[in-house]
Structure prediction request, 137 residues.
Amino acid sequence: MYSTQIYATFKISKHIQELNIDNDLKSGNTELVHKIASGHKIKSSKNNKEIYFYSFATKYCNWHNQEKYAIYDQFVKKTLLAYKKQFHFSEFKTTDLKDFEKFKSIILEFINFFKLTEYNLKEIDKFLWIYGKELNK
Prediction:
């Protein structure tokens, strides 16, 4: 459904299955994103290093628990950086967006600053993604 750039689907599926993640997903354990994104042994053909599937991991977790996991991708990043620049809703570094616990806090700051508490993470994600795509034009 979302573009995840994962071509070794059997490897990533096996990795996720071996993690036994049901309780972590249910509780919203932020460390789960890192566990899914790494340790799968899928390597880049360019540099032979393991790929860190951060965006995929956030999407995977979100699809299983939309109340606890926000989605990160390039469009969400662009939107958050634009709103930070214009409205100063949060103090964060760009690299903080790739740390899920910090990323989720930034999303919550965004929600609180703009008084969007009536919307769930999925609705916020849709807005951030659509606006980020517009910024990308």
Q: What stands out?
A: DSSP finds seven helices and no strands in the chain. The CA atoms of residues 43 and 85 lie 35 Å apart.
